[in-house]
Amino acid sequence: MRKLRAYIVIFLFVFSCLVYLIYRENIILYEWIEKPILNNLQSINLPNWVLYNLPDAVWVMTLLYCLIYIWDFKLKRANSLWIILPIFIAFSIEFGQKYNWLNGTYDKIDLVFILIGSSIPLFDLIKTHYHEKTIH
To answer: What is the rounded CA–CA span in Å between residue 79 and residue 84?
Structure first.
């Protein structure tokens, strides 16, 4: 199950990176890609939430899963701060945009997606941690 979970997380991360590379014109790599190729890829219409909100959720989810995998799905006091840190950073970036401390566009929907993206690995961690505790 953990292997399948890892493949899904990697796929989502690669997908969200591709969304940024293909659909965001302010990315430096945008200028390096051949225009005909880019135009063909951009002709695929994706919903706005996939283009603008999903990548934030996937990045938080991916980072959390990486940390959770490092600790082998063990929930300990020592790693709690490291697990909370990516969530705090994601929300801080969004509020930094709201108050013009950071470049970007504040979006309440991003907050919802960040919450969902961080909840999935946290629920998975808690479920796995307590399931393994009851077995041993």
So the answer is: 9
pTM of the prediction?
0.82
Distance CA 14, CA 72 (A): 23
Q: Let me know the angle formed at the C-alpha of 12 by 7 and 84, rounded to the nearest 5 degrees.
A: 95
Of 116, 67, 73, 111, the closest CA to residue 93 belongs to 111
- Cβ atoms of 57 and 80 within 8 Å: the answer is no
pLDDT tens-place string over residues 70-129: 888 888 888 888 889 999 999 999 999 999 999 888 999 999 999 999 999 999 988 887
Measured CA to CA, the distance from residue 45 to residue 71 in angstroms comes to: 39
Residue among 124, 103, 104 nearest 53 (CA): 104
